[in-house]
Design brief:
Blueprint: H1 7-29, H2 49-82, H3 87-109, H4 116-143, H5 151-176, H6 192-214, H7 216-221
InterPro entries: CWH43_N, DRAM/TMEM150_Autophagy_Mod
Keywords: Membrane, Transmembrane, Transmembrane helix
Subcellular location: Endomembrane system
Length: 234
């Protein structure tokens, strides 16, 4: 069912989805957050969900890094015969993606209430770099058509990128208008509307990333990694 290295993005998608859902369920059942659209980080701030969130998001960052690197290698291999994109552009896209993974690690390590400034910087880097990464990958996908990608897949990737970009901007704008750092939001209190709109946009961008990596599975099915060992005799 998973030829080549298709299991890598599949594992990334399933693990990341589980990380969001499990930490959310634990936080709601523990009464730490309201069930109606909390921030993703709100569901991983207090124990015991903070331990689950930190562990699983760090693993997600590692899986995302591996997926991005394999994607880089795949494009390099395809580019040897098609020459549809500059190698420097491919490398730049990889670096942007890895920067986003670093931001994920910061978010997972520094909880929202413990070190809010560092946590917010990590979140900004993760979401900002992630949006740029999937947009660049969408453009590269179009350049590789029709030999390496179908236009249908490219349209899906670009649609996800556009939606994520549109959601990212109000996410930052509304979050910047919130005058306090807290996780137990209730309707009607000060800045709740800003929190609510920003949280919706945040979940939209996060699952936009998940659905985008889901489109990598088919590409990765026809690509395998081989490790060769050469022994030189004197």
């Amino acid at each position: 069912c998973m030829p080549g290295v298709a299991f890598v993005p599949a594992l990334l998608v399933s693990w990341s989805s589980a990380a969001f859902i499990i930490s959310y369920v634990i936080a709601v059942l523990a009464g730490h957050v309201e069930p109606f659209v909390p921030y993703i980080s709100d569901t991983g701030t207090k124990p015991p969900e903070s331990g689950v969130f930190g562990f699983m998001i760090n693993i997600s960052a590692l899986l995302a890094s591996i997926t991005m690197y394999i994607r880089y290698l795949l494009i390099e291999k395809q580019n040897e015969s098609s020459h549809f994109v500059r190698s420097s552009c491919n490398m730049f896209t990889l670096c942007v993606g890895l920067m986003g993974c670093t931001g994920m690690g910061i978010v997972a390590t520094f909880q929202e209430l413990a070190v809010p400034s560092v946590h917010d910087i990590g979140a900004l880097v993760a979401f900002g770099s992630g949006v740029v990464y999937i947009t660049l990958q969408s453009i590269i996908s179009y350049k590789s058509c029709p030999r390496w990608n179908t236009y249908f897949v490219c349209h899906i990737r670009m649609a996800i990128s556009v939606i994520s970009c549109i959601a990212f901007i109000p996410m930052i704008v509304f979050a910047s208008k919130i005058s306090m750092t807290k996780i137990d939001w209730t309707p009607g209190e000060k800045d709740y509307t800003y929190h609510f709109m920003s949280a919706i946009c945040e979940w939209t961008v996060a699952f936009g990333f998940i659905f985008f990596f889901l489109t990598f599975i088919r590409d990765f099915q026809r690509f395998s990694l081989r490790i060769s060992t050469e022994i030189h005799e004197e």
